[in-house]
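Before relying on records like the one below, remember that each one covers exactly one chain. Contacts with other chains, cofactors or solvent are not represented anywhere in the record.
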Amino acid sequence: METTLRPIRCLVVSANWVGDTVMALPVLDALSAAGRQLTVLARPHLHPLLALSPAVHALLETARSNGETVQRLRAGAFEEAILLPNSFRSAWLVHRARIPSRWGYRADGRSLLLRPAVHRPAVQLHQRQDYDRLLKRMGASPVTTHPELIVSDAASKTGDSALRRAEIAIDHKSPLVGLFAAAEFGPSKRWRLDHFAATARILEDPTFGARTLVLAGPKEVSLAKALNNRVGKSLPVVGPDLDLAALAAVLARLDVLITNDSGPMHIAAAVGTPCVALFGPTDPQRTAPVGSGHHVLFTGRWCAPCFRRHCPLLHHRCMKEIGVENVIEATRKVIGWRSAEQHGS
C-alpha cells in the first residue's frame, strides 16, 4: 500500500521591500518542490503580489503587536520556519512562537534564537542567489533560474480596466513604454526628473512612434504630476489605485519599462517585460533585473555603488551622467528585441 508523505508545514518570513520579495520568489518555488506547504508572513501590501505565486499555500499578516503576531504563529502549528530578513525581530518572533526548526543566517546578534543558524556566504552574488546556502541545508534546490510571476485572470481584468480608464488601447500596434521615476529607497536612486521628461517628449514624438504612460504608487502621485508638468502635456498616470497584483498586470502589457532600481523594475522582469534600468548608488551586479532583453545603464563612477540615500558628495553624478540619448538608444534596442522575439525571428 502506497503512502503519501504529508507536506511539512513551513512558515516563510518575507522580506519587507517589494524588490526583495520578488527576488526571493525562487526560494518559495524550491521549498514547495521539496515538499513544504508554505505560509508566508508578510506585510499586507505584499499579499496580492505573493498570492500570484503558486508555491504559496496561505498568507499571514503581521499584527500591530509582537504578542499578537506570536499568537498567530503558534496557531499555525508550523514545524519549521525560514527567515528571509536578517533582522533580530524576525528571529525573536519565531523563537517565541516555539517553531521547532528556525532556519536563518547568522546576523544582528540572533544566532542563539535560530535552530540552526547558518553562516552567510562570504561572496555576494546576485541577490536572487542569497538563499541558496539556506536551501541546500534544508534539503531543497533551486528549481527556477529567475523570479517568475504568473498574472491571474482577476489581476489582468483589473489592470486592463485601469489602462482603459487611462484611454490606453491594449491591442494597439505602436509600442507602449512605461516610465517609473520613483524609488522608495531615497532620492539618490532617482534619475533626474528633467531627463525623464525629455525622454518622454522624444518617445511621444511621431518620429519615434511610441505611446508613453507614467507609473506611480499612492505615495508618488505628486512626483507623477511634477513629471507631467515638465513634459508639458498630460501623460496618462496608472497605478495609484492598484494593488501590486494589478500593477504586475499593467507592467505585463508594456513593451518596455524605463525605471530606476526599484520594486516595479523587479515585478516587470518577473512578468517578462524588459527594462531599461538606471543604476547609480546601487550595484547592478546585486540587483539588476533578471531575465532576457534588459538594458542596464550604470556609469560605474569611482564612488559607486555607495548605497546611500543621499549623495554624500552632493553632486549625484552617478545618475546625472546617464544621458537621455543613452536611455533612448537602449529603449530602441529593447523595442527591437521585443518585436523580433514576438515574431519569432
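The longest strand covers residues 36-42.
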